[in-house]
Amino acid sequence: MKVNQAEFIISAVGPSQYPEDALPEIALAGRSNVGKSSLINRLISRKNLARTSSQPGKTQTLNYYKINQDLYFVDLPGYGYAKVSKTERERWGKFIENYLLNREPLKLVMQLIDLRHPPSKDDQAMYQWLRHNDLPVLVVATKADKIPKSQWQKHAKIVRETLGMDQGYHPLLFSSEIGLGKDELWAILEEAIDYGKPTSEEENREEEPSS
């Protein structure tokens, strides 16, 4: 996908603030500081549309970014940050859960895992919860540039086995710094949102007999 337009839309704190134009949505889930904002910026070839934070756990809203007129990236609050109170973590958990289970335009959840480290218990719990609820999930292993290329497959295997991914499924290796995985990831996202396929309105127009 060639990105001609990308804009921040809203930091939503509830369903009443979610966009109503029914564009497909791609959610990004992951621990704080796993690189969600950096991934968005690399995908759209912009430096600072999605703002990275030096304070883990700061994002407490669903941040909507509109890409062209084709889809939204929805940056979910990071999980697993110890300095956030238990009550606050539980509130975020319900907030995220309600969005993931009930948001009709949601087409795919990208779960980001730091390739340098084995998935945490929070990572494992999120992945199993997504699978249990039959939500489409793509595991993206970020920060691949931070380890030698010769170690990529070893670390990817650790991610796959720790999460318990089904045979034949692998994390997509990604680096916001060097652009690794960008084209492959876009291809998966385009398929998830049926990008380039005619809408029902266009199909009906094509089927109308000529006079």
- The CATH architecture classification is 3-Layer(aba) Sandwich
Number of strands: 7
> pLDDT average, as an integer?
88
Adjacency order of strands in the biggest sheet: 1-3-4-2-5-6-7
The CATH homologous superfamily is termed P-loop containing nucleotide triphosphate hydrolases
Number of domains: 1
Order of helices and strands: EEHEEHEHEHEHH
Distance separating the two termini: 36 Å
- Report the helical percentage: 25-40%
Q: Judging from the principal axes of the Cα atoms, what is the shape?
A: globular
The biggest beta sheet reads:
7 strands, mixed
CATH topology: Rossmann fold
- Given the structure, what is the number of helices? 6
The radius of gyration is 18 Å
| Helix vs. strand class | alpha/beta
Sheet-strand content, in percent, reads 15-25%
Poorly predicted spans: none
In CATH, what is the class? Alpha Beta
